[in-house]
Amino acid sequence: MSETKISYQMNGFTYILETYRDFLRITRDDKVIHVQYKRIKNPNDIGLKGINDIIGNFASYIEFCETEKPFRYCAFTDDEWARKTHVHCTIHYTLSNGQDFMDERHADTVNGEMRSADSTITKYECFIKNCSEEELKKSVKVVPWTREQLIDHLNAEAILKNSLKKK
Q: What CA–CA distance (Å, rounded) separates 130 from 6?
């Protein structure tokens, strides 16, 4: 599934940098330690670098990822438009000072309805989580929320997202 794959031995571990479309993943002995976009749009205070800078000095970027541990998680959403569905991804990071940072981008466009975007999102999630589709399906937990609990949760997420964008 990956387009680029670079392996590096350091401190007794095997680190692998892999790319898939616009995403970059770094694993340590098959455990995901960092995910980001290949290209960094704006200079940021987190310390993220673009793929060319990472490949140029992979060892120092591994040290950055291991010490700072900025990556937290990715969230995918889809948005249906006329005859196509846009897939968006938000990557959440936490700075060493505890401040949260989000990088949201358009990830893909799929022709057809939202159902056709599900398989595309599954491919992205499998790459980011370094698992197969079967393992991904097993790890999905259904949360038995009431309608009110779901509304409260979504409202809290929207408030957090808006407050982070203002900063």
A: 15
Q: What DSSP string describes 50-80?
A: -HHHHHHTHHHHHHHHHHH--EEEEEEEEEE
Alpha-carbon distance 110 to 107, whole Å?
10
Which CA distances in Å does 29 have to 8, 9, 15, 136? 11, 10, 6, 19
Q: How far is CA 56 from CA 6, 26, 47, 125, in A?
A: 12, 15, 15, 27
Computed over every residue of the chain, the mean pLDDT equals 86
Which H helix or E strand runs over 123?
helix 114-129
Structure tokens at 29: 């002995």
- Answer whether residue 142 shows pLDDT above 60: no
Spatial neighbors of 15 by CB under 8 A, at least 6 apart, are 7, 8, 9, 26, 27, 28, 58, 62
Cα-atom radius of gyration of the chain, to the nearest Å? 17
The Cα–Cα gap between 152 and 139 comes to 24
